[in-house]
Design a protein that fits this description.
Shape: globular
Order of helices and strands: HEHEHEEEEEEEHEEHHEEHHEH
Number of domains: 2
Largest sheet: 7 strands, mixed
Low-confidence stretches: none
Number of strands: 14
Number of helices: 9
CATH superfamily of the largest domain: Type I PLP-dependent aspartate aminotransferase-like (Major domain)
Helix content: 25-40%
CATH topology of the largest domain: Aspartate Aminotransferase, domain 2
Length: 388
């Protein structure tokens, strides 16, 4: 197959850390509040500013609290699990690796009485109709490692007694999150907005705050997880008074991404950009015999972590070890050509490709990548089909 001529202007398709916004340079950080305490006037003002810009872009209700917390999305999820769970039975919904990690926390570490696990294989969703509205529920909105998202929140009862805890790290800023259905929402800004890592966002509904102030877990909480003091919410956390020292350089980078998000049309513009990337890959996959989406149902296909499986008969006839080697070789060829970085599928997922389509990725770059995918697959297939 002829080597394609056009190349993506930006070859960054990693699912985390993700591509910087178009046109980003280090000069975007020149106004960072450095060499000063994050508890000083300027530092607190910067932190409060990004909280309110987050609220405005994501359309978070005024009575929901938004806090910047340590340790990326993982830290935010762990804070929620350890601080809120145990008051009721909990349904753990998992269909990919990160959801499975939260199952391990709840079932093996916290050992919540009455915990149920609703699981599905990569590419599918569990039966969400089995979620009990009287239980708490923990789920990912978008499976970063499977490319499967929940199509809607119709399965979440309006009159639920339990709390919904949603890991939205690869969904926030690319999908429309229905806030009345979500009591705890977490994400990191290094995903859809391409910000620098290490910080998480924790969003609490009034129902979640009520739980925090009326329930004390049976286990001790380390300082880094504590959201209450004397039985009352520590309100300062949600005004920029962080539990630990944040990187104001990373905060400035997030602020720059938020300003860019405002320029491209806010949430609607960000969603449109991500959906256009998914549409470009879908149009190619529909006419390409060797590839298909890992997600079984079109309505559940992610527009951010776009996961693909290889389906042609040559590939499916290979042994498991050889199948795992094919996408590795394909990704290595594209990296060597500086066409795409980090597009091999997640290590626990079925062998395939994972192409980030979040809002910071230009659709023109997706379209330029597509001929290279065909080229690389043809090259790998030819190499492995030659008798030793």
């Amino acid at each position: 197959m002829t080597t394609p001529l056009a190349r993506p202007k930006s070859p960054y398709f990693s699912s985390g850390p993700c591509a910087k916004r178009p046109g980003w340079t280090p000069q975007a950080l020149e106004n960072a509040v450095l060499g000063q305490s994050h508890r000083g006037k300027a530092g607190k003002a910067r932190l409060a500013d990004v909280i309110e810009r987050t609220r405005a872009i994501l359309r978070v209700p005024a009575d929901y609290r938004i806090g910047i917390v340590p340790a990326s999305d993982t830290g935010a999820v762990e804070m929620a699990l350890w601080s809120l769970l145990g008051a009721r039975p909990v349904d753990m919904v998992a269909w990919e690796s990160f959801g499975a990690e939260w199952v391990t926390d709840v079932v093996k570490e916290l050992k919540i009485p009455g915990a149920r696990t609703l699981k599905a294989a990569y590419g599918a969703l569990p039966d969400l109709g089995q979620v009990n509205k009287d239980h708490d529920v923990v789920f990912t909105w978008n499976g970063t490692t499977s490319g499967v998202r929940v199509p809607n929140a119709d399965w979440i009862a309006d009159d639920r007694a339990g709390l919904t805890i949603c890991d939205a790290t690869s969904a926030a800023f690319a999908m429309d999150l229905p806030w009345p259905k979500l009591d705890v929402t977490t994400f990191s800004w290094q995903k859809v907005l391409g910000g620098e890592g290490a910080h998480g966002i924790l969003i609490l509904s009034p129902r979640a705050v009520e739980r925090l102030e009326s329930y004390t877990p049976a286990w001790p909480l380390p300082k880094i997880f504590r959201l209450t003091k004397g039985g009352k919410l520590i309100e300062g956390i949600f005004k920029g008074e962080t539990i630990n020292t944040p990187s104001l350089l990373c905060v400035e980078d997030y602020r720059d991404a938020l300003l860019w998000a405002e320029q491209v049309g806010g949430l609607a513009g960000l969603i449109a950009r991500s959906e256009a990337n998914l549409a470009a890959i879908a149009a190619w996959a529909d006419k390409t015999a060797w590839v298909d989406f890992l997600a079984d149902v079109p309505e559940t296909r992610s527009c951010t972590s776009i996961c693909l499986k290889i389906v042609d008969t040559w590939f499916t006839a290979l042994g498991a070890e050889a199948q795992a080697d094919v996408p590795k070789r394909l990704a290595a060829k594209l990296e060597k050509e500086k066409v795409a970085f980090d597009i091999n599928g997640y290590r626990d997922a079925p062998p395939g490709l994972r192409i980030w389509g979040g809002a910071t990725v230009e659709t023109a770059d997706i379209e330029a990548l597509i001929p290279w995918l065909d080229w690389a697959y043809a090259e790998v297939k030819a190499e492995l089909s030659v008798p030793a």
